[in-house]
C-alpha cells in the first residue's frame, strides 16, 4: 500500500515537472524526461548568470553579489519543497517509506 502511494506521488511530481518544461509533455520515457528537465534547468541557470553579469556591467553601482542571491533563492526553494512534502524546514529531514 505504501509503495503504491509512493509511486503515485512520484508520478504526480513527474507530471508537474513535465508541465513546467517546454516540450517535455511529449516525452514518454522517465529517464529521457529527467534528462530534458536537467538540461532545461541548467539552461535557466546559465541564462540567470549571463543576465546577472550583463546587469552588473550596465549598472555596476548596484554592487549585488549574484552568488549570495542565488544561494538565498535555493534555500527558499528547498524550504518550500520540504514544506510541500510535509517536513518542517530545519527539522531532522525526510523519513523514508
TrEMBL record:
BHLH domain residues: 1-44
Main localization (coarse): nucleus
GO BP, sorted A to Z: regulation of DNA-templated transcription
Protein name (database record): BHLH domain-containing protein
Keyword Transcription regulation found: yes
Keywords in alphabetical order: Nucleus, Transcription, Transcription regulation
Gene Ontology MF: a single term: protein dimerization activity
A single cellular component GO annotation: nucleus
Species of the source: Zea mays (Maize)
Subcellular location: Nucleus
SUPFAM superfamilies reported in the protein's UniProt record: HLH, helix-loop-helix DNA-binding domain (SSF47459)
InterPro entries referenced in this protein's UniProt entry, alphabetically: bHLH_dom (IPR011598), bHLH_ZIP_TF (IPR024097), HLH_DNA-bd_sf (IPR036638)
PANTHER family, sorted: STEROL REGULATORY ELEMENT-BINDING PROTEIN (PTHR12565), TRANSCRIPTION FACTOR BHLH74 (PTHR12565:SF312)
The family this protein is said to belong to: Belongs to the bHLH protein family.
Amino acid at each position: 500500500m505504501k509503495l503504491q502511494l509512493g509511486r503515485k506521488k512520484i508520478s504526480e511530481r513527474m507530471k508537474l515537472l513535465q508541465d513546467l518544461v517546454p516540450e517535455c509533455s511529449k516525452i514518454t520515457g522517465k529517464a529521457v524526461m529527467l534528462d530534458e528537465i536537467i538540461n532545461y534547468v541548467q539552461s535557466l541557470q546559465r541564462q540567470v548568470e549571463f543576465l546577472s553579469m550583463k546587469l552588473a556591467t550596465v549598472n555596476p553601482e548596484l554592487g549585488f553579489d549574484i552568488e549570495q542571491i542565488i544561494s538565498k533563492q535555493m534555500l527558499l526553494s528547498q524550504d518550500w519543497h520540504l514544506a510541500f512534502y510535509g517536513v518542517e524546514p530545519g527539522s531532522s529531514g525526510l523519513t523514508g517509506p
